[in-house]
Every structure is written in C-alpha cells, then in structure tokens.
Design goal:
10 helices; 2 domains; alpha/beta; DNA-binding transcription factor activity; D-Maltodextrin-Binding Protein, domain 2; amino-acid biosynthesis
Amino acid sequence: MIELRHLRTLLALRDTGSLVEAAERVHLTQSALSHQLKDLESRIDSALFARKTRPVEFTRAGLRLLSLAEQVLPQVREAERDVARLAGTEQGRLHMAIECHSCFQWLMPTVDHFRDHWPEVEIDIPSGHHFDPLPALAREQLDLVITADPQPLDGVHYVPLFRYEGLLAVARQHEFAGQGFVTPEALAEQTLITYPVEQSRLDVFTHFLDPAGVRPREIRTAELTIMMMQLVASGRGVCALPSWALTEYLERDYVSAVQLGENGVWGTLYAAMREETREAPWMQDFLRTAQETSFAVLSGVRPATRDEGSTA
C-alpha cells in the first residue's frame, strides 16, 4: 500500500516546505507529484497535509508517515550498502579535487558520512595540484573532480549535483545595497574581487559580464572567502559568490547581497568521474550522499535536472 517513493516524497515536502520545490527534489513535475500524493491519500483514506499552506502543515496521518520515513529509509539505504559489500564491490579508491573554493562547507560532512559507511574505500583530497584536475581525472591520477566548468574529455562523465545562484556581495553602505539587482554595466566602474583562477571559470564573467561586453574597472584577487568579505565590507570592492558562501556573512549583517541581473545568474555544480567507475556502488552512494548533504546544509540551492549530466 505505502511505497518507498511515497516516503521519499513526503520527506522532500517536509524539507522544502512547498510542492514546487519538493517536485524538483524528487525529479517529478508538480502535476506528477500532486497525483502521487493524492494516490497515497486515497490508499490510506486520509489527508496528508493542509492545502494552500506554506510551509506545509501536515495532518496527524502525514506526521505518522513522516515518522515512518525517518525510520525506514535509512534502514533501506544501509541494506543497499550491505548488499553491495556482499557482492564484493566495496573496494575502491576515491582521490578527488575541488575546483570550487567555497565547496568545503558541504563536502567535508559528505566525506565524513561516506567514510563511516565505506571504510574499505580509500579517500584522499590531495592538495597543491600543479596540473588541471579534469585532465588528471582522465589520466587516472584522480577519481572525482567537483567542478562548475565541465570540459569535453573522452571517457569522463559529469553528474549534476545541484544548481546555485551567484550573488554580488557589497558593503552595507555601498550604492548598490538595497537594490533588487544590478546590470552588467553597473560593474564597469567597480573593483571586482575574485578568487585567483582563470576568468573563464568564473560565472560572473562567463554568464554576466562577457555576454554584455563589460569589463570591471579593476580586478583584485584573494585566496580565501573571508579575505574577500573583509575587502568588500571595508568598501574596497565587490565580489560575486554562490549564495551559500555568503549566508553566514549576510546573517551577521557583515555585507549586503544583490542579485546579478533581473533574472539572476545560476550555475550548476558537477561531479566528474571516469566512465568505468560511475556505476560502482560506492561512487553512486557518494554522489547521493553529496546531494543529500548539500540540500541539508546549504541555503538557496536547487536540484539539477537529470538531463544536465553528460559524457564527453
């Protein structure tokens, strides 16, 4: 009567608080998700939640099934891992590189959780790379690369993890503070602070400034996010970062944030791996854990569509 997909949908609805975002989370259309919930309600002959409420208010029946989901789904996940081990597919190596400077906020909890469940898999995050991570992945020097800039490489597959919005951080007293959005032209007289990477790997250039043919007055680089925020707060420039990287600074009222363009600038973060390892149970579990963790700890991220993944 009650299926695992129903339980996963209810958890998504609770975590997101809306039908639209829950549908994105479980990769269904809103219509399909509504149909699934109505089907479940007809099976149990009871309403699951009050309609037209945000966040969603669950009925007693809905809360009971949520409790069931919290008990059952982790057990199912653990059983899947055990079955993979019994099949003898637990051995593996996961050496990874991160091209995203602000990714450690969700990646470290992911690695810790994964290590607890797959102790047989060797995990390492080498530091001090003096080579491009994606070609190193193709050469089998690495096993996974977290990147927002997928490149066409033979035998390399990209799995979208989540979508994120880039925001412009400005000083609280800056002329942009309080505006709904800024245009590319508005940055022509600004000092733009970035990480010390190629401009072709920064969304603020590729998706915002370059299409408009605009260059900032000056470009300044900083290695760490906190250094960038100190420069911004002191009025020495503006900085474009993923929304989640700005959360703690916005909550502390250290800086202000403005949307890039009227429709915003959105990017997708990918996990890149070789074709021969993409179906390994431990790799699949790592990807699933990464997605679940990112939604749990990051603000403002959205599920990526399944057709965003590709094989070069």
